[in-house]
């Protein structure tokens, strides 16, 4: 009840939730109380969570914050959310996000932007919470849920976590089932939690992760007790500092944050080593070929026949065109057009195939570094603190917006786990995040190391 009251009071200003499931939350909480009274109870018994609108929730608003899914209420539950309910968690509602998870500011949502609960000390300007999991990050940051689900295709868990002073982990590709999560770029998409601290993130990820027959890319490996990794010593651990992440134009405060992170880990007993990831500079351009290519294919299913919106036309082709024209926003249309172009005959080899080759090289860069004994890699999570809503530069030039992902996309391209953890405040009192990148399925090292920083 106190979470629901907090949402009702704060959500009109923050727009973090697009649907609040008051009745369902109370029913689930009562069922949880009953289980506890019986002496039963799971790992998340009674814990109130928010769910990103990308996850299918049975009988509840699920629109990926797009108009094209108008009125869609699935008859099934995503595996990740089902895992959380099975452990006793309580659903508070569905969280705002960039349309189909395409964006870095949560301004492409059909439901309007999310407002970051943080403000700079020097101005009262409204700031973005980052994206695409902006609703998840803002809701956790503003105490409107105790944790949230999120997804990360190129940074959408880690960048909003960094912008809101929260912790977000994108686990290894295959750690969580993608079943019931609206697909953006299937070879990059992964679910993970946004939480108030590293321990909460560890507890939530343990519940979310599972192998699933309904997602053949989910991996059959035991899920470790991530929480047990917290508090372990860093002695003997090797942390890599990639020189290619020192990009021109990185603000001094980001450099300073990185330097502080290095000092903290060294003081905690880790050995700091310089490393090279030579193909880093190709990651962003390759990502913005691969992700739109997969998106253009995945979004073909929104045709006015199967789900959501239908705008009648004079024949079926006219109906498709009118439905998609009215249903998708500008950024989604841009991705579909780029993706269709790079996959088309004559351009496939020059763009898509080339990007796939680059992806292999990026993956190999990381493999080489880990083979040389590096346990985790420390970088900034984002090239800046949260920026203003309707930032003119950012919105006039989509490429400027895409640069937000410069430190995060390599991790998705290589399928690795990455965590964003608060590293302190900038001169304006705004949160900044550090990122740790780990070996495949070694989320434990990330929790262990991030806990030293938080
Ligand atoms: N900002 C990136 C994009 O727009 C990443 C989004 C994501 O991780 N879902 O594609």
From TrEMBL:
Its EC number is 6.3.5.7. Pfam families: Amidase. Heterotrimer of A, B and C subunits. GO terms for molecular function: ATP binding; glutaminyl-tRNA synthase (glutamine-hydrolyzing) activity; transferase activity. It catalyses: L-glutamyl-tRNA(Gln) + L-glutamine + ATP + H2O = L-glutaminyl-tRNA(Gln) + L-glutamate + ADP + phosphate + H(+). InterPro entries: Amidase, Amidase_CS, Amidase_dom, AS_sf, GatA. The gene is gatA. This is Glutamyl-tRNA(Gln) amidotransferase subunit A. Residues 1-446 form the Amidase domain. One of its GO terms (biological process) is translation. Belongs to the amidase family. GatA subfamily. It is an enzyme of class 6 (ligase). Transmembrane segments: none annotated. Hydrolyzes indole-3-acetamide (IAM) into indole-3-acetic acid (IAA). Allows the formation of correctly charged Gln-tRNA(Gln) through the transamidation of misacylated Glu-tRNA(Gln) in organisms which lack glutaminyl-tRNA synthetase. The reaction takes place in the presence of glutamine and ATP through an activated gamma-phospho-Glu-tRNA(Gln). Keywords: ATP-binding, Ligase, Nucleotide-binding, Protein biosynthesis, Transferase. The active site is at residues 52, 132, 156. GO terms for cellular component: glutamyl-tRNA(Gln) amidotransferase complex.
